[in-house]
Amino acid sequence: MNVFQQVKTLVYKEIILEWRSKYALNSILLYVVSTVFVCFQAFKSVDSVIWNVLFWIILLFTAINAMSRSFLQESSNRQMYYYTIVSPQAVILSKIIYNTLIMLIISLIAFVVYSVIFKNPIGDLSFYFLAVVLGSISFANVFTMISGISAKAGNSSSIMAILSFPVIIPLLIVLIKFSKNAMAGLERSESFAEIGVLLAINIVTIAISLLLFPYLWRD
Asked: Which of 4, 11, 3 is nearest to 70 (CA)?
């Protein structure tokens, strides 16, 4: 099989395994709903700035919980089996695609629940939704790459935290600024620079993953 067929097969495998258990996805959805409800009980109502920042904080920790298990659930025997039949590029690409799909589903549900429980103050809803989509893709790409590095370092949570910090902080700053412009209903051209930065971060992250993961895979 070529790389694209391998990626397709591995993504299908991930979906089938998740569909059979549903444990991880259900636990993440429970975390999202319960966190939003607790925030509502604590704050009752918030202004637009707090609304935006709180949403991204919830989405960030949801992404960490969802993506940190990317390679944790793979046993050493299964990884050895993959090593003999597929390329490392296919493995990391399948993880990125699958995690992106999961993050998009979770983000959509989180956004709907958050908007229903808290009053929605968004001025440009479609553009804010674009920010959510790009943010979900960015979280999936970054945390998948870092999860792969962490897995080869003994699944150390401290390694994942240390590696995530310098990447996630600028990413969050860009996402918050982008979504803040959408909330205020500003001209969409005002956010083109943030969109370009987000696209660049995703391209660089995927490129680094494809270059770096084969060396980690050999270990």
From this structure: 11
Q: What is the pTM of this model?
A: 0.87
Q: Which two tokens stand for residue 179?
A: 């979504």
pLDDT tens digit string along 32-51?
888 888 888 887 777 888 88
Cβ atoms 65, 193 nearer than 8 A: no
Place of tokens 């966190």: 35
Would you say 150 and 160 are in contact if contact means Cβ atoms under 8 Å apart? Answer: yes
DSSP 3-state helix, strand, coil percentages of the chain (rounded to 5)?
85, 0, 15
Q: What are phi and psi of 73, to 5 degrees?
A: -80, -5
- Please report, for residues 49, 111, 151, the alpha-carbon distance to residue 55 in angstroms, rounded to integers and kept in the order given: 10, 8, 29
Query: Coil, strand, or helix at residue 122?
Result: coil
Residue partners of 13: CB distance under 8 A and separation at least 6: none
- pLDDT above 80 (res 200): yes
Whether 122 contacts 182, CB under 8 Å:
yes
Query: Which residues touch 124 (CB under 8 Å, ≥6 apart)?
Result: 182, 183, 185, 186, 188
User: Would you state the structure tokens that stand for residue 162, as one six-digit string?
Assistant: 């240390």
CA-to-CA distance for 103 and 98, rounded, in angstroms?
9
